[in-house]
């Protein structure tokens, strides 16, 4: 484990800083957990802290704190490293070169380097720090790593080391090769070896990039097995770069610094056969100073290991298996060239240096590298107000502009140099002549021969400072230059930046001295072959012609026609789909036949004629699908619920499956598997569809064509999805005289999505999936429904919780929380509607180096953009948790995808743990369902019943009733005034207008109630009106009658002929729609009655509803005769249309409810049904805990009592066989009295104890 602390044991002399706040904040106090910390002077414009580790170490991580007990801490910093204190390499991460710091003074922020590097010196540059409460820069730190042994070799372009393989050859199945290098050259050969059979292994540098060529092929077999891998960029920066090559068989991993490229070698061979030797650093043989296409390496190599062999150590020891051509003496040390580059980093950067005043000749020379299209390279003002000269980039080209008073501006441009490579610029000028040489191409310099006068000024600017004084300063319309410069010469004198700045001869701002921190688009952050354009501190992805869009060309199209249909696309036509969404497969165009077939055509739909084939030399027909590769079509079949493909073979003296023998013709499907069954039958039965349909022309054969008659056909649909699509067709019996075959393969037709696998969480539990490995971009999508207001949907983290991603719900807010390199961040979507409404919602989230965003349903994205050069690392070690138990999710989840890959939720179903298939909670499996049309509100772990729209109350909407004593009654006022004539007339003209004009529906009635009584007769329910209409239900001694008066006619119906005054609960339901009346008592068959067409079918202006007794002045005689003494008993669940009088009385939701009572009317549950004692969830049951405690106490006391009785019986103090008194069940006298009377007849019983 390479995690030793390296700073804590260092002496004070190992620490150096640009300045200090005072002696209490010196650099040597910058140790983790120390009692102080380092803080620079407030006047220090570029503070840094430097540590000399004493030797070279392999560094793995860094940890920081702020100054002890203060408000001083650094929130962001960059790190430089090197083998010497005057030449630095910036630590470059994916997306930038800044590291996240602390958020308080005491907590430790640990950053693990995403690739290990070696260094002896470390320099930390604070970039941002806390400024609240007087805070300033404050640092305590620790580095973690282990000692690193370095074996170095210097190469000058004419050197080479040859390692001779043991036994004069090398044949390996696996290889492990490591090499470190640094150079200023763009090209050079690092490793090379060949075999006589054409095997090859070459590692070379070309244009600052590293190329690995490997071939496992054999010339004898004429197989082209050469494979080329490319990694790295801008490797000519004189920094150490670390290369590792691992191969097993055809699998190769090629790593340069932090970038790893993986490939499968071409060909079919697995061993690398090399002869004699491997060249290190170059090829030097007789008559061949180097390879024809690659020069030898110039620079330093370190720790060259070939399958465990340390080549440089062997060369240093001059061992016999090492050969050095020409016997040249090698240098086992690296002689660095001191370049002192500088990085123009900030938005206001500039460098001002002195020049020689009033010279007639000007010489300026420097090297630069940049990605910028525009930027000022150099500006100087001439002496004596003769004008100025400007050298800059415009559209990537070098521009030279001369300004002189009274003369026309002279300007010309040449070369495009914003390619990120080092370029040299050599400018020489005198009166009337200026020459510009780029990259030392002296044969074709650019010249200006216009008349102008040169008198050099006293200062030169590389970049312009901000100032209002332009007399002595630079003035330009170009942007600031961003990039690197080195080797600056002014008037043929090389500038030593350190000396100039030390003596304050120059000025600068926002420069990083001693290093070049430029980065590029390697590895390409744009996905799906998007084109990357690099600027100084950011990149842009051009996604044209990729089929994708977004910041990094990540995703755009739906995965299937079914997904388009569900998103609202209902018309058939051509659509572009992407079955693996953000995966590596490209989108392709299909025909969607809504609802909702996905159809992919192929080149065999029109049919193909085959002759001359045999079972040993068959005709193999490849099926090519339109607009899609084989992998893409397979991916579509994978995500579909059902697929089918028509296959037809028309034969003329040509046999097909030849059951049970070897088939002549068959088809090849997914995974290149051969299948010996035909369309219309079951899989793997070697039969055709005519057997299933019993239509074969000869029942002795399993296919029509196998009968070998002159002409017939076998056809049908192949519908086993896991075998589709058809990839090839093999035809093998058309070589007989006159025989031929004609086959057709129809389009692949699929529908449905099996990604919609759905589960329900009914208990606080979780499920795990393999660790999510998203790379640089993560996208997550799923559907959910829940009633919980706080829950976590999913989370993935590493072992120490330094990195994690999490999606959680907080009522209206959906949050995407993550820590992937720059502290804990989140992007939160604030929904205008609550998301815990138990309705389906669709969530999408995405995270990349540019931004994080999240959306739900059709609401706009909530986006958090990251600053340029943000580094993210999504490396997790823990399993992916779905439904974290700290804040559990109870509800349904479906269609979970991680980077386009659907997760098998249904495969995790476990009823005992509370994970159910499909979206089934407690409502579907309720022990007792909600009664009386109550709506079940799903709680997944439990359920509740919504009784608001019913006439009932209670847990199951099973109760609200009233007990009426003799003479008591209840009146519910439906309307306070009659319907106006205008409303009645409008309703008469347009019956559909009634709900708006009347406020109720006068052609429909819905009445239900329950009752129990032993007294008859009585009026159970009466509804009056402002006219003469009424509705009455009358209980008689031998029946229950219904009276309906509509207009002038009273309709009389008998609901039942039984006597219902029997003390048992009975249920009555009456429904009328226009002229049809439907009645039902208890659970008997409903009775349907009709109102004739000549009668009125409207119940006009209902006024009041009476229970118990009718209290209106003018009622029909039949009603009056049964009205006294009134109803005595229980009545419950009374509802007329939307009116529930008992619920209004006992559960009022307004201050003045429209109900009044007389006499004794009390709430009761006796009317409708017996009390329902059903399942109550344990978390809602107040008795649950008490019952458990009581049972435990009973068991405890019972056990103690049993122990006591057993111990008492066994103590042996006195035992007797005398019978105990027993109560007689048939006599008041004890049974022992009878025994005493008969005692003389009993034998004498001896006592068991002995006296002392």
TrEMBL record:
Disulfide bonds, paired cysteine numbers: 892-919
Domain F5/8 type C: residue ranges: 2-146
Gene3D superfamilies listed in its UniProt record: 2.60.120.1000, 2.60.120.200, Galactose-binding domain-like, Laminin
Position of the signal peptide: none
Key words of the record: Cell adhesion, Cell junction, Disulfide bond, EGF-like domain, Membrane, Phosphoprotein, Repeat, Signal, Transmembrane, Transmembrane helix
Domain EGF-like intervals: 517-554, 920-958
Regions that span the bilayer: 1183-1207
SUPFAM superfamilies, per the entry: Concanavalin A-like lectins/glucanases, Fibrinogen C-terminal domain-like, Galactose-binding domain-like
Domain of life: Eukaryota
Membrane topology qualifier: Single-pass type I membrane protein
SMART domains membership: 4.1m, EGF, FA58C, LamG
Segments of skewed composition (Basic and acidic residues): 1234-1252
Stated name of the protein: Contactin associated protein 1
Organism for this UniProt entry: Amphilophus citrinellus
Lineage: Eukaryota, Metazoa, Chordata, Craniata, Vertebrata
């Amino acid at each position: 484990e390479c995690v030793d602390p390296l700073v804590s044991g260092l002496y004070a002399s190992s620490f150096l800083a640009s300045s200090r706040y005072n002696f209490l904040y010196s650099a040597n106090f910058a140790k983790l957990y120390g009692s102080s910390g380092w803080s620079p002077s407030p006047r220090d414009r570029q503070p840094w802290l430097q540590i000399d580790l004493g030797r070279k170490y392999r560094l793995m991580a860094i940890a920081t704190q702020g100054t002890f007990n203060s408000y001083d801490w650094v929130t962001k910093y960059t790190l430089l490293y090197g083998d010497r204190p005057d030449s630095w390499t910036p630590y470059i991460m994916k997306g930038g070169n800044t590291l996240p710091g602390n958020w308080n003074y005491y907590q430790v922020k640990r950053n693990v380097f995403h690739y290990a590097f070696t260094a002896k010196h470390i320099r930390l540059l604070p970039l941002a720090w806390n400024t609240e409460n007087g805070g300033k820069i404050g640092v305590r730190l620790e580095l973690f790593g282990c000692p690193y042994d370095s074996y170095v070799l210097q190469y000058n372009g004419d050197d080479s080391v040859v390692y001779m393989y043991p036994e004069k050859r090398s044949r390996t199945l696996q290889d492990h090769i490591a090499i470190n290098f640094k150079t200023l050259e763009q090209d050079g050969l690092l490793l090379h070896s060949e075999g006589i059979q054409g095997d090859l292994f070459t590692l070379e540098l070309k244009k600052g990039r590293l190329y690995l060529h490997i071939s496992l092929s054999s010339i004898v077999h004429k197989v082209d097995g050469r494979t080329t891998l490319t990694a790295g960029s801008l490797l000519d920066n004189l920094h150490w770069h670390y290369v590792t090559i691992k191969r097993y068989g055809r699998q190769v991993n090629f790593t340069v610094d932090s970038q790893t490229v993986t490939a499968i070698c071409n060909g079919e061979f697995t061993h690398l056969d090399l002869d004699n030797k491997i060249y290190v650093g170059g090829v030097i043989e007789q008559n061949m100073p180097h390879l024809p296409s690659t020069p030898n390496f110039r620079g330093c190599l370190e720790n060259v290991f070939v399958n465990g062999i340390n080549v440089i150590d062997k060369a240093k020891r001059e061992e016999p298996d090492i050969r050095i051509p020409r016997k040249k003496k090698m240098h086992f040390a690296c002689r660095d060239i001191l370049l002192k580059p500088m990085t123009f980093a900030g938005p206001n950067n500039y460098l001002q240096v002195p020049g020689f005043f009033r010279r007639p000749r000007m010489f300026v020379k420097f090297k630069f590298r940049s990605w910028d299209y525009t930027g000022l390279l150099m500006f100087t003002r001439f002496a004596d107000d003769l004008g100025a000269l400007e050298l800059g980039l415009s559209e990537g080209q070098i521009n030279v502009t001369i300004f002189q008073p009274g003369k026309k501006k002279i300007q010309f441009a040449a070369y495009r140099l914003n390619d990120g490579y080092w370029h040299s610029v050599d400018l020489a000028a005198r009166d009337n002549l200026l020459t510009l040489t780029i990259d030392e191409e002296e044969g074709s310099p650019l010249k200006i021969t216009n008349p102008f006068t040169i008198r050099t000024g006293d200062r030169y600017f590389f970049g312009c400072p901000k100032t209002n004084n332009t007399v002595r300063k630079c003035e330009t319309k170009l942007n600031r230059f961003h990039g690197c410069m080195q080797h600056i010469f002014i008037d043929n004198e090389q500038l030593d930046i350190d000396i100039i700045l030390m003596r304050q001869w120059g000025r600068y701002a926002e420069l990083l001295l001693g290093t070049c921190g430029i980065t590029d688009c390697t590895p390409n952050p744009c996905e799906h072959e998007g084109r990357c354009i690099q600027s100084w501190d950011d990149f842009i992805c051009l996604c044209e012609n990729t089929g994708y869009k977004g910041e990094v060309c990540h995703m755009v199209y739906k995965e299937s026609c079914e997904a388009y249909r569900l998103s609202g696309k209902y018309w058939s036509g051509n659509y572009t789909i992407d079955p693996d969404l953000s995966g590596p497969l490209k989108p392709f165009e299909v025909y969607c036949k809504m609802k909702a077939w996905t159809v992919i055509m192929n080149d065999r739909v029109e049919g193909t004629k085959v002759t001359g084939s045999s079972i040993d030399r068959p005709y193999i027909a490849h099926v090519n699908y339109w607009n899609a590769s084989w992998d893409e079509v397979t991916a579509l079949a994978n995500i579909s619920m059902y697929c089918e493909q028509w296959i037809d073979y028309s034969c003329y003296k040509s046999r097909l499956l030849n059951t049970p023998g070897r088939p002549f013709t068959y088809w090849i499907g997914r995974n290149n598997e051969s299948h010996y069954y035909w369309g219309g039958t079951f899989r793997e039965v070697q039969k055709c569809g005519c057997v299933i349909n019993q239509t074969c022309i000869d029942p002795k054969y399993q296919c029509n064509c196998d009968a070998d008659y002159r002409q017939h056909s076998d056809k049908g649909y192949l519908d086993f999805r896991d075998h589709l699509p058809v990839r090839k067709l093999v035809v093998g019996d058309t070589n007989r005289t006159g025989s031929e075959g004609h086959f057709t393969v129809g389009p692949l037709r699929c529908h449905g999505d099996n990604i919609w696998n759905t589960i329900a969480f009914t208990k606080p539990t979780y499920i795990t999936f393999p660790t999510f490995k998203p790379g640089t971009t993560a996208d997550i999508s799923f559907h959910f429904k829940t009633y919980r207001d706080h829950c976590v949907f999913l989370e993935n983290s590493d072992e120490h919780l330094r990195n994690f991603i999490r999606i959680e719900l907080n009522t209206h807010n959906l949050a995407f929380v993550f820590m992937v390199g720059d502290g804990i961040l989140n992007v939160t979507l604030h929904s205008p509607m609550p998301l815990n409404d138990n309705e389906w919602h669709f969530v999408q989230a995405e995270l990349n180096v540019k931004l994080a965003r999240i959306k739900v349903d059709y609401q706009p994205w909530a986006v958090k953009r990251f600053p340029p050069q943000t580094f993210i690392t999504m490396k997790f070690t823990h399993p992916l948790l779905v439904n974290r138990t700290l804040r559990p999710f109870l509800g349904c989840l479906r269609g979970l995808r991680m980077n386009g890959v659907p997760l098998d939720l249904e495969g995790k179903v476990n009823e005992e743990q509370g994970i159910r298939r499909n979206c089934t909670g407690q409502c579907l499996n309720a022990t007792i369902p909600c009664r009386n049309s109550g709506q079940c509100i799903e709680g997944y772990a439990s359920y509740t019943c919504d009784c608001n729209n019913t006439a009932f109350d209670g847990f199951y909407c099973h109760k609200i009733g009233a007990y009426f004593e003799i003479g008591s009654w209840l009146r519910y006022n439906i309307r306070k005034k009659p319907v106006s004539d205008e409303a009645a007339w409008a309703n008469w003209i347009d019956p559909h207008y009634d709900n708006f004009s009347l406020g109720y529906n006068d052609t429909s009635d819905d009445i239900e109630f329950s009752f129990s009584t032993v007294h008859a007769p009585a009026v159970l329910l009466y509804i009056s009106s402002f006219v003469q209409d009424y509705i009455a239900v009358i209980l008689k001694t031998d029946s229950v009658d219904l009276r309906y008066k509509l207009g002038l006619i009273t309709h009389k119906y008998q609901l039942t002929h039984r006597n219902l005054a029997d003390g048992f609960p009975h249920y009555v339901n009456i429904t009328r729609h226009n002229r049809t009346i439907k009645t039902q008592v208890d659970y008997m068959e409903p009775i349907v009655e009709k109102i004739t067409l000549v009668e009125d079918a409207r119940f006009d202006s209902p006024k009041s509803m009476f229970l118990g007794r009718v209290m209106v002045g003018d009622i029909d005689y039949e009603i009056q005769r049964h009205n006294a003494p009134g109803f005595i008993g229980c009545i419950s669940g009374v509802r007329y249309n939307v009116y529930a009088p008992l619920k209004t009385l006992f559960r009022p939701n307004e201050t003045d409810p429209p109900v009044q009572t007389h006499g004794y009317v009390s709430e009761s549950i006796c009317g409708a049904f017996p009390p329902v004692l059903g399942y109550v969830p344990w978390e809602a049951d107040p008795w649950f805990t008490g019952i458990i405690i009581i049972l435990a106490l009973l068991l405890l006391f019972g056990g103690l009592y049993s122990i006591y009785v057993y111990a008492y019986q066994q103590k042996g103090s006195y035992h007797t066989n005398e019978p105990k008194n027993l109560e007689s069940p048939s006599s008041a006298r004890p049974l022992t009295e009878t025994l005493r009377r008969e005692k003389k007849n009993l034998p004498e019983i001896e006592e068991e104890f002995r006296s002392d």
